[in-house]
Write a structure and sequence with these properties.
single chain, 149 residues, mainly alpha
Length: 149
Amino acid sequence: MGIAVTGVVALWLLRLLTAAGLGVDAYVHADLAPTYDFSGQGISQGQLFRIEAAAAALAALLLIAFGTRRLVWLFALLVAAAGVAAVLLYRYVDVGALGPLRNMYEPVWYPEKNLSLIAEAAATALAACGLLLAHRQHQHPDTEARRGG
């Protein structure tokens, strides 16, 4: 198997695994969103969970459909990394209310939160690898042709 073919297979594998991690992220956030709804002014954590679920689902779908594009990989990386940052920040730091956002400090771990963090962390690492591989393939698109493939 040539280097270019191996790169294509690796990129597809990264696309599928990253999309799976983002899919788990989307599912967990959509499932938990009603638990964090509140009535009142401001943006609820439930609304933010729905936004995260939508962004993760969109990133997963874009990866499957257009996973050779660097911008798609960058979007997936940002969505996954933002999820990791948010869960760790609000787990370990009592930030307090920020503008329309209520205090989201939650110093506990539970199974869905663990699953979400693991999926987001895996998707972050995989998306970083995918972005690098897509960048390499964009920089050297004729590798297969030079090798006679």
